[in-house]
Amino acid sequence: MKNEVGQYYDNTLNHYQRWWKLNDNLSLHYGITEPGITGFGESLLNTNRVLMQTSGIAEGEDVLDAGCGVGGAAFYLYNAKKAKVRGITLSQRQCDYANKLVEHHRLGDFLSFHVMDYTQTSFSDESFDVVWACESVSSAPDKTAFAAEAFRLLKKGGRLVMSDFFLTSENQPDPQQLIKKWVDSWWMADLVTADYFGKALSEVGFKKVTNTDYTDSIRKSASRMYLAVVLGTIPSWLYNITHPKVSKFAKNHYKSGYYQYSALKKNLWKYHIFLAVK
Predict the structure, then answer these.
(1) Please, what are the domains in the chain?
(2) Does residue 139 have a pLDDT over 90?
(3) What is the pLDDT of residues 184-231, one digit of tens each?
(4) In terms of pTM, does the model score above 0.90?
(5) Above pLDDT 70, what percent of the chain?
């Protein structure tokens, strides 16, 4: 599974560059819209701000970005708090992209990126003040394994902050299998409920676990993704016909925007931010 997740992001990087303004915002996640946030780019940066404030990151703290994408959060945290951030991803292309930016801005003393599995890292015990995971744990088949590794890596009093997608309830009716189609086209693992994940955090040792529902705040991003499907369906269909050897990851990726939006409209999933303290 982890090899395929890495290959998925290797093969779809250009999609995010075109449809999600990746080169401008360095973000692959949903944007959180709140009062005063007007544009799409602002909402993406606001997601970083909300996670930073939720976790209470202080000046110069050591942060692990678990599922770092192309490094947008790391650069944000450096600029805001002079945080030292190590980012890990399963995608070699994402890692190379982020490290080139580090080299360009001469920030090697503060930021670095590595290809690594966030359930089995090579970092020492109690290496970080904060473990940060923005929409990445949904790709983990074993959410408890991620929680246990995050606990191991955190210093005493350290915090795990994460945002992600969760099933609204267990065994909910989904006759069109919208969640499964979304998961398959976006190469995620099976989703779980927020209650399930909260219990997993407690079971591995976290003493303070809270979560906040931000579903309404990401609806504009979900709508934007759906609009990308509307605009991109015909070009994608034609491209698939003229390029029959296109990767399995890129072939149906565009459909994910429809599935996530339709499932959200049917209240099949929620967007939560978790904070857990060691």
Answers:
(1) 2-277 (3.40.50.150)
(2) yes
(3) 999 899 999 999 999 999 999 999 999 999 999 999 999 999 988 777
(4) yes
(5) 93
